[in-house]
Amino acid sequence: MKILIWHVHGSWTTALVQGRHEFLLPLAPDRGPDGRGRAQTWDWPPNAVEVPVSDLGGAEFDVAILQRPGEIELLEQWTGRRPGMDIPAVYVEHNTPDGPAASTSHPLAGQTTVPIVHVTRFNRLMWDNGVAPVEIIEHGVIDPGYRYTGQRLAVAAVVNEPVRRWRVAGTDTLVELASQVPVEVFGMGMAPLAERAPDLAAVHENLRQDALHDQLGQCRAYFHPYRWTSLGLALIEAMAIGMPVLGWAATAAPDAVPASAGVLSTDPADLAAAARRWLHDPEEARQVGLAARAHALARFGLDRFLDDWDRLLKEVIR
Questions:
Q1: Distance from first CA to last CA of the chain, Å, rounded?
Q2: Of the candidates 223, 229, 209, which has an alpha carbon nearest to the alpha carbon of residue 285?
Q3: Rama region for 38: left / alpha / beta (φ>0; ψ in -120 to 50; rest)
Q4: pTM of the predicted model, to two decimals?
Q5: Which residues of the chain have pLDDT under 50?
Q6: What pLDDT does 318 receive?
Q7: How many angstroms separate the CA atoms of 110 and 128, rounded?
Q8: Coil, strand, or helix at residue 257?
Q9: Which of 201, 254, 278, 297 is at 20 to 30 A from 22, Cα to Cα?
Q10: Based on the structure, what is the number of domains in the chain?
């Protein structure tokens, strides 16, 4: 089938385009947020095809995958087709509510023609989904291979725009941990963080995915600092690399990380103690990382993810 989808979430889309279908990616002249086209820092297969926005009106596709409320209007504006009426569609919700979790209605809560697809059970619980049909398709990751060496005595974290997303991303807790053990941070928008957090051991910006995985695997452990998120794909990828993980016992992390794969807690002292222990005991860190990898591949494997999406899309376009 042919699937129209915007390039919004690079890691998630990288997994999806490994499927057996053709993916049409809107391309704007400036490659802005509404028309990024193909990824620049991930390697995507040739079945992910850029389509200039001006050509979308004449493009044939079987279903649209929406990920932001504004795409509903863009789809109709650019193609003349209304999602759920003129063209089958699903809406993927990557994020937790910005407002109060117990009372925030999802933008698609008042309709019944476009299913909301949550990427975690936690997401489904936190949003008020109203009368909309709801599905859950958990993340899937391409196996990056076992890359763990742990040779660098540092804890790694991946956070994009860490200063703008300061408390949501838990950047303040990352900086606190860096005052006790060496911490290296990877992601986009690192310059403000380097100025604000001089205790960090290193910051790394805009690495391609393969290089990022190699760099992460050289660090002794991985820290997932997020206070409020759905579930960071970087956490799952770190586990698949073979890294032992630390994180807050919040959001979907307790459901995704078993005790054998790392340490989750709401007490900063617990995480700092585990980090220090692994920095001094490479064998324990390695064993925990092996358990993390086994769990990530079993729970978040690519084949299961693609099979789940095939099933849903076939149901939607009937």
A1: 12
A2: 223
A3: beta
A4: 0.93
A5: none
A6: 84
A7: 10
A8: coil
A9: 297
A10: 2
